[in-house]
Structure formats: structure tokens, C-alpha cells
Amino acid sequence: DYTFSGENITIIPSLFYSKYNDYWQEVTYETGEIIDGVHKLITTPQNVGHVDYYGVDLTASYRVNNQLNFTFNSTLYNFDQHGIFETTNTIGQPISIDYNYKNLNGTLKLLTQLKLSKGLKLQSNIVHKLISKGTISTRKAFTYANFSASKDLFEKKATLSLNVSDVLNSNQTKRDRFDTNYFSSSVIKNQN
Asked: 67 with 122: CB under 8 angstroms?
């Protein structure tokens, strides 16, 4: 890690590396059963090999003045997975799914803090998650924002706060899973 500090700016870059053996993730495949003419799919957590996870994290803070401050954080990383999932479905057909791939992932965040007169403080946090593509699924990029306001009361002996999470109702993971015989799409509402 290295830190640069100036009069109004601080920059902190860092590199990271992690290795995960016996990496678990959700695996989707056809069971071999057909229900009303539709092939039944199952999604289940499975060990699909190992993952090398490495990248760069950058945090920068800029204090414009005593009232306004910006903090930016960026995490960009390679997700390098190695493994093959193999099983046999309920009718004895072999299932083999290749999970060997590399993908650039990342998150960008901007925190803005504004202090107004008479103890009123406003804060916004905007988060953007980059698209994540794999051999059998894609998580779409998404952006969401949180907002808060607070007011000091009774000579700073009390504080009244209002927090609004996911102002635009957009903090959702949209994922497509696919293989040669199927395509499925899911939306999961994330919690902050």
C-alpha cells in the first residue's frame, strides 16, 4: 500500500490477490425430467474448482472546503476460475459444465458529503457494479444510490436523521444463465 496526502486530497492505491480452493457457486443444469413439455432445471451450490482473485483498489478523497467532501473508491479485479462441474442427471445422462474463464469485474463508488448551516448535513452514496460475464452466466451492470440527511438539535446534544436506501429502486442483481439447451433470467432485489 502507498498513500499520497496533499493539502485537500488523499489517494490510497493497493493491490490484492486471493486464491480460493474448493470454490462454491450456484450451478444450473437440466435434471432430465420433463414437466408439461418443459425440461426441468435445477440450481444448486456446488464445488467447481478454484479461483484466483486479484486486482487493484483505489480510494481518493478530495476536501473542497469545510462544507464539501468527495470520496471515490474503485475496485477492479480479475476473477480467474478453473474447474469443471460433472454429474449425472436423473435419467443417467452425463452433465459436464466448463467453468474455466477469466473476467474483469469491478465496483465504483462516489460518496458526497455536504455540511450546510445550522448543523444540517447531507450525504449521497452512488454505487455502480460492472457487468460480470462467465461461461454460463452474465450478471448485468447496475447502479444505485443512497441518501441521508441529518440535523443537530439542542446544541448538538441530539441528532435527527433521515436515511433513504436505494433511492431509484435499482439495486437489483439481474442474471442470465444459459447453456446449449436453455436460457433463464432472474432478478434479485439486493439489500444495502
From this structure: no
- Whole-number Å distance between alpha carbons of 105 and 93: 34
Collect all residues with Cβ–Cβ distance below 8 Å to 79 and sequence separation of at least 6: 51, 53, 102, 103, 104, 105, 132
* Neighbour order of strands in the sheet with 4-5: 4-5, 9-20, 50-63, 68-82, 101-115, 120-129, 142-153, 158-164
Helix, coil or strand: residue 119: helix
Q: What share of the chain is helix, strand, coil (3-state, %, to 5)?
A: 0, 70, 25
* Among 6-10, 60-64, 94-98, 177-181, the least confident range: 177-181
Other residues' Cβ atoms within 10 Å of the Cβ of residue 88: 10
Prediction pTM value: 0.84
